[in-house]
Amino acid sequence: MAEMTYDPHNPPRGEARPRRVAFFALEGVQSLDVTGPMEAFAVSTRFGAAYDLVLCSEDGSSIGTHAGLSLGPAVPLASLSEPIDTLVICGGSEAAMLAARDAGTTLDVVRVQASRARRVVSICTGAFVLAAAGLLDGRRAATHWNAADRFRALFPQVDLDADAIYVSDPPFYSSAGVTAGIDLSLALIEEDHGARIALSVARELVLFLRRPGG
Q1: How many structural domains comprise the chain?
Q2: CATH of the domain at 36
Q3: What does the DSSP assignment read for 108-171?
Q4: pTM reported for the whole predicted model
Q5: Of 106, 163, 181, 192, whose CB has the highest number of CB atoms within 10 Å?
Q6: Distances (CA, A) of 110 to 24, 60, 91, 131
Q7: Given this model, what pLDDT does residue 101 score?
């Protein structure tokens, strides 16, 4: 991945400490589910936001995407010891998520790191990971519309909104597929740093700040 130009040791506008945003993905993830939200947060630092971004995988290996790209370098999710402001779960292939569920160790790590984060976010099929970890029980959530029936069958205890671009049920936030992860990221940036910075990011990425419709 391209090196971020933002220096976490020299945050803009006198902010004492940047907010750490950890992105976690499994093999077979759609590349935009990771890179779209990461770009939104990275671009926001040009306009005065303060974020420290880190890419995580299960064991620190690079992440193979659905498109054949390899995302890295990455660190093991379990290795994060500094405070996490926002934990973003980006999903993966169905096979990778089923393997993570059956092994159990990955879900244990997700539970631990989620308990340490101020807020927890899922992008697209990342909602399957959070639901498998039991973190969405009794909560509202969103995921990709094409995976909605599968999700409901596996996790009837979650109130899934298959028509939503994203759902806010603090401290959990979830989005539908692919570009909807950028919509949610813009909303989180606005929540952290205000509408001016979020609008600047949307303009830079040539996006709606708030996309109409569902």
Answers
A1: 1
A2: 3.40.50.880
A3: HHHHHHHHHEEEEEEETTHHHHHHHTTTTTTSEE---GGGHHHHHHH-TTSEE-TT-SEEEETT
A4: 0.89
A5: 181
A6: 9, 15, 12, 11
A7: 83
Identity of residue 20: R
Q: Is residue 160 part of a domain?
A: yes
Q: Give the domain extent around 73.
A: 16-204
Q: Are 145 and 163 in contact (CB under 8 A)?
A: yes
Query: What is the C-alpha separation between 137 and 147, in angstroms, rounded?
Result: 18
Inter-residue contact 174 to 141 (CB < 8 Å)? yes
| pLDDT bucket at 79, cuts 50 / 70 / 90 | very high
Cβ-based neighbours of 36, under 8 Å, separated by 6 or more: 178, 179, 181, 182, 185
Please indicate, yes or no, if residue 33 is contained in any of the structural domains: yes
Whole-Å CA distances, 149 to 91, 146, 152, 153? 17, 7, 5, 6
In this predicted model, what pLDDT tens digit does every residue of 136-176 receive, in sequence order?
Answer: 999 999 999 999 999 999 999 999 999 999 999 999 999 99
- Residue 99 in any domain: the answer is yes
